[in-house]
Amino acid sequence: MESHQIYQNPLITRYASKEMLENFSDDKKFRTWRRLWIALAEAQKELGLNITQEQIDEMKAHQDCINYDVAQRKEKEVRHDVMAHVHAYGEQCPKARPIIHLGATSCYVTDNTDILVMMDGLKIIKSKLLTCMHYLSEFALKYKDMPTLGFTHFQPAQLTTVGKRACLWLQDLMLDLEEWEQVWNSIRLRGVKGTTGTQASFLTLFDGDHEKVKLLERKVLEKLGFDRAYPVTGQTYPRKLDSRILNLLSSIAQSAYKFGNDLRLLQSLKELEEPFGEKQIGSSAMAYKRNPMKAERMCSLARYVVVNALNPAITASTQWLERTLDDSANRRIVIAECFLAVDAILNIYINIASGLVVYPKVIERRIREELPFMATEYILMEAVKRGGDRQELHERIRQYSMEAAKRVKALGEDNNLLELIANDPAFKLDREEINRIMDPRNFVGRAPQQVEEFISEHIKPILERNRELIGGNVELKV
Fold this sequence. Notes:
Blueprint: H1 10-15, H2 18-23, H3 26-46, H4 53-61, H5 68-78, H6 81-92, H7 106-142, E1 147-152, E2 155-161, H8 162-186, H9 200-205, H10 210-223, H11 240-268, E3 272-273, H12 293-308, H13 310-317, H14 328-353, E4 357-358, H15 360-374, H16 376-385, H17 390-409, H18 417-422, H19 431-437, H20 447-465
Antiparallel strand pairs: 1-2, 3-4
Helix pairs in contact: 3-4, 3-7, 3-10, 5-6, 7-8, 7-14, 7-20, 8-11, 8-20, 11-12, 11-13, 11-14, 12-14, 16-17
């Protein structure tokens, strides 16, 4: 059947990167299963079991050439994916066949592999997270001094700067990176625990020698590049690990969602704009449109991840005793798709952050429209210093503000508040003096300094420590 005749997951066909798709591929999974079987056999041989180097060499020779046809045919027969692949590996390695998977339960390969694959996925995520931070920090520094109208409740508020606002987005990613480190440092392998986590099968293989059983796990871990496993397990590793990792992915999605929503609002105001291709079409009907489609796609994918993070929480909380299999089908879908979705989200984030467009004249115009109202307190203080009566001047400003607001809202005319104040001798301020007061830079507080301090003290050290992980631009599929 042709691919266009059956459902194709858009995370694969449209959104996720090749490197993340390869990380969750069958090849990666089944090669890792074989790597685990080899590590187990080597450790068992070193501890005295009757396993030969010839058997191990045979296993290594076929580690990366998976005979899928045999495995698929066998799984239809036995309805068990691990045993199907044990059989397929055994066909390729007839000498090693008797000792493949010796003493192990299925979760020895499936669970340890899942952890290893997720860790490799987290490495990809970290690199892209850092790349987003790199571009946002450059943007923040470039526009640290540019005043812009702040918003609370999406209503005009005190001024900030374009760069300071970008630091809000950047700080969210910094917090995600901190959470990444916490999750990464908590990860352990399942280890070599046997069917219900008691290691009973391995105790039998080693004739009741507890020390050899303990040493077996340590040796396998070392061969896989680890120094610790979960100290106790049932048949599986604690499913709380999945919940913890997907909560991290959800956190990253939340940060991207916030950035994407802010950008969509600012693009509607024509202050900021995501990169727009030379031949890109914004609307099939309205040819003039420049829709924020990348930010919208990012928000759409982020919503999927945030909602999907509930799946591993339910899975972790509903596992029966030492294990139940109702986690399996769910985990096959949820874990990979959340990684693919966050990978796609960060690809879009990098693309936008590396090419954000700023429209200073629009920003300046909006400041001119709103700043007179915000500057009245400053003007009031100046007038009082020149001998004015604070209460009388306050009432005059209130009346002038209402008059100016009516002019703007009801009549659609320019804000003439400053002209009304300048023409009132009670304020003892001429228009030139008021214009000096109205320099937007007088109203941004410490925003420029906050940007410099935040980048130099918090972001720059992170980027310098991880500079080898920071990549360039990404190419979106669509």
